[in-house]
Write a structure and sequence with these properties.
The structure is a homodimer. Chain A is α+β, with helices and mostly antiparallel strands. Chain A has eleven helices and five strands; from the N terminus they run H-H-E-H-H-E-H-H-E-H-E-E-H-H-H-H. Chain A has a domain of 163 residues: NADH Oxidase (3-Layer(aba) Sandwich). In chain A, helix 2 crosses helix 6. At the A-B interface, helix 2, strand 1, helix 5, helix 6 and strand 3 of A face helix 2, strand 1, helix 5, helix 6 and strand 3 of B.
């Protein structure tokens, strides 16, 4: 519980490799997560070779953490392995569709989170790279991912060289809904986000970016509509190219 | 680690409610998971009222576990709350697209897995209901989910009234790939699935279903192409209806 509640993403790592046995143990713990019909619709690709990490880093927009982490684990929704098993056992796989893609993505993400907790339990630090879905097409090329697979997230792993503060969260009443979704009125939204907006770091963030409100930093700079729309079209196209047609 | 490695889904529960403080603590631990840009793109709806559980159960195909668990937690990809905050802070949200939907789904799934581990740490048992994406449209109605939200998974929670064996997993070499994806040849696939195929329970499963191979039980009965295609179209339509257009 302590481990879950004290999680903070690590973006600076010691120059120290992760023992292969530890890496295997982490992925094993990942694989103990629940999985759709026990089909295990995922694979994990570990990138440790420096040249390969340098190939991946630009696809993660050259975030320092992607460049410097000793290990990148890419979590892949995978219906390739299972479908091959079907085909060679006189069974016709029916998984080249969106719903199957999404089921495999769920599987891969539960594995990822279990693996992160296992890693932290070994004293390692982790950072999710949300950039995987932006450049899935290029990551597929670098990692040689076959049809019926799709990379859904990447986790940078290594021994921490920093100890960041916990980041802010909105109050629980903004997250947990009793019986039905409680939609929020303006005053409630104000209240939920007040703590975040009043953090010195966030005020600084607004100032540095020359914006009037913190929300504008998100909409105009960090997660822009035009980028989201561009990467939506690209991602949908890549899902289809990987054989999940719709 | 023990907790992760000893996980087995629980489908039979004691007739005993879960203390609201424990439920809050579980969801809080969920919310400590990594989240895209710290936007917390998720909500959790707790269904405990008997009538509401009876409304949800048919949408989970009346699985006994859905009918009998004292709590169902539905994990919702949620760009509604964040977008409202943007709008009332002079910022134009740009999240009505597929990529934003998928980012929120990732967020919600990491919360779900953390919450499951926290629940197990309290001695509770959990079972994922993969059926959520099949009937998302109807679940949206029952839980009154607004536009820019989408239910991605549901977890049944309660005090265990059974202690099932761990389920089988394929060997780690079928999951963990070194540097690039190692695609599998026929002999390798045979080897990966041999243990599963030779389990007495699986042989029984093939027999009961009148099939020749275990793979056929999956393709012809449990996860059929025609069902997958039907639910793909339905799910895509629902994602769009919820305001994530593409």
């Amino acid at each position: 519980m302590e481990l879950l509640n004290q999680h903070a993403s690590i973006r600076k790592f010691e120059d120290r490799a992760v023992d292969p046995k530890i890496l295997e143990s982490i992925v094993y713990s990942g694989s103990r997560a629940s999985t759709t019909g026990n089909m295990q619709l995922y694979s994990v690709v570990a990138t440790q070779d420096k040249e390969n990490r340098q190939r991946l880093a630009p696809l993660h927009f050259n975030q320092k953490v992607a460049l410097e982490a000793p290990v990148l684990l890419t979590f892949v929704a995978d219906f390739n392995r299972f479908s091959k098993w079907c085909t060679q056992n006189s069974a016709e796989p029916g998984y080249s569709n969106f719903h199957s893609f999404f089921s495999a993505a769920i599987d891969a993400l539960l594995v990822a989170q279990n693996a992160c907790i296992a890693a932290e339990n070994y004293g390692l630090g982790i950072c999710y790279l949300g950039t995987t879905t932006y450049n899935a097409k290029e990551i597929i090329d670098v990692l040689k991912l076959p049809k019926l697979t799709f990379p859904v997230t990447t986790v940078a792993i290594g021994y921490p060289a920093e100890k960041p503060e916990l980041t802010d969260r909105i109050p629980l009443k903004g997250i947990l809904h009793n019986e039905t979704y409680h939609d929020f009125n303006e005053a409630e939204i104000d209240e939920l986000y007040a703590y975040k907006e009043n953090l010195e770091s966030m005020k600084q963030f607004v100032l540095e970016n020359g914006k009037e409100t913190l929300a504008q930093v998100f909409t105009d700079i960090r997660y822009k509509k035009s980028d989201n729309e561009f990467f939506s079209a690209k991602m949908l196209q890549t899902i289809k190219e990987q054989g999940f047609s719709f």
